[in-house]
Design brief:
By secondary structure, the chain is of the alpha/beta class. It contains 5 helices and 6 strands; from the N terminus they run ααβαββαβββα. The strands form 2 sheets. Strands 1-2-3 form a 3-stranded mixed sheet.
Length: 160
């Protein structure tokens, strides 16, 4: 596989409306943003473009390429599935906060383990997960069309 294939895929992925506004508002309130994903780091970085400046850390699968652009190595993230809870705990500890002060936003079955950390979990645009399981998902936004809905949710729940 060539790097150009992944970059081409990334160009087809669109961020939810309101992503920049949400990131800016959260930064203004000194809220840190971490991305923990089962996706590919290169794709995430290419989709976010300049918004990466608002993200404190990204954990995802890393692909390495040769100087000619061909895939040479895949480094799988240890922070997918069960590892998401471990990552939340690590971030909470590094920031001297309780995991219960963390809002984890996810949408799929690989996010279902995040609740084990003690974080509050919010399911948006559910896909391949039981959105009604209140042990796994403390709350949900079934149709999140604008990321500012998460910011408004945090205001409403007095998380900011």
């Amino acid at each position: 596989m060539h790097r150009n294939v992944l970059e081409g895929m990334a160009k087809k992925i669109k961020l939810l409306d309101g992503c920049k506004d949400t990131f800016v508002k959260l930064r203004e309130r000194n809220v840190q943003i971490y991305i923990v994903s089962g996706s590919i780091l290169l794709i995430i970085q290419n989709v976010l473009k300049g918004l990466v400046q608002y993200v404190d850390d990204i954990k995802a699968n890393v692909l390495r390429f040769s100087s000619s652009g061909f895939l040479t190595e895949i480094i799988g993230t240890k922070y997918d599935f069960e590892g998401k809870a471990d990552y939340i705990e690590k971030v909470a500890k590094a920031n001297n906060i309780s995991p219960s002060d963390v809002l984890f936003v996810g949408n799929s079955y690989n996010d279902e383990f995040a609740y084990r950390s003690g974080a509050k979990t919010l399911c948006i645009n559910p896909k391949d997960t039981n959105k009604t399981d209140t042990v796994i998902w403390h709350d949900r936004i079934e149709e999140c069309k604008n990321l500012m809905q998460i910011y408004e949710y945090m205001i409403e729940k007095q998380m900011l």
